[in-house]
Structures are given as structure tokens and as C-alpha cells.
Design a protein that fits this description.
This protein has about 110 residues and is α+β, with helices and mostly antiparallel strands. The chain has one domain (about 5-100): GIY-YIG endonuclease (3-Layer(aba) Sandwich), CATH 3.40.1440. The protein contains 5 helices and 4 strands. The protein has helices at about 25-35, 40-45, 60-70, 75-85, 85-95, and strands spanning about 5-15, 20-25, 50-60, 100. A hairpin with a 4-residue loop joins strand 1 and strand 2. Helix 4 packs across helix 5. The N and C termini lie far apart (about 35 Å).
């Protein structure tokens, strides 16, 4: 079995204040695509405005599970996850047995 590569699960805020959750190997590049209107259909129509949270996950399969897990919650719970980082880390581990690590968001002239 091969080594699992890092993926990132991220949450974007759109101009209509909605939240979009996605995964990427390179979240900086993907965020730029969203800002330029080349991202997901959802963010093309609602215009991505800011990146709110990024978590590292080992393996694409695990990242997809975490993405689906986050998307299953209503917006108010996602907002809570953004405010209380450790709450998401704990719930993901308890429910999915997947370890995630909060990333620092550092944007350099995107």
C-alpha cells in the first residue's frame, strides 16, 4: 500500500454569505481558481470572497469523507466549526476515525 498524500479540506465564504466546502491537494491554487471564477459551479455563481478554514487530511478518500461530513451540517453548525476549530477536529475523529489538522491560512498576493 502506498503512502497517503496530504489533501486539504477547506471552507470558503461567498459574497452572498453562504459557505462552500471543497477539497484540494493545493488549496492556495484551488482558492485562486475559485476567486477567478474557474472553481466549482457553486462558487462561479455566488462569487467566492474569502477562505475561512483549511484542514490537512492524509489521503484523498479521507478528505472526501471529511468534506461530505462537513457538508451534511446546516450553515450555523459550520459557522460554529469555524469559530471552534477543535470542535471539528474532535467530531471528525469521533465519527469518522480520521485525523485532521488545522492549517494556518497565509495568503500571499492571490
Amino acid at each position: 500500500m502506498g503512502k497517503k498524500v496530504p489533501y486539504h479540506v477547506y471552507i470558503l465564504r461567498c459574497q452572498d454569505n453562504s459557505l462552500y466546502t471543497g477539497i484540494a491537494r493545493d488549496w492556495h491554487k484551488r482558492y485562486t481558481e475559485h476567486l477567478e471564477g474557474r472553481g466549482a459551479k457553486y462558487t462561479r455563481s455566488r462569487k467566492a470572497e474569502s477562505i475561512e478554514g483549511v484542514w490537512e487530511v492524509l489521503g484523498r478518500s479521507e478528505a472526501c469523507k471529511v468534506e461530505y461530513f462537513i457538508k451534511s451540517f446546516p450553515k450555523n453548525k459550520k459557522e460554529l466549526f469555524l469559530l471552534e476549530d477543535e470542535m471539528l477536529v474532535k467530531e471528525v475523529f469521533e465519527r469518522l476515525q480520521v485525523e485532521i489538522k488545522k492549517e494556518k491560512i497565509i495568503l500571499s498576493k492571490i
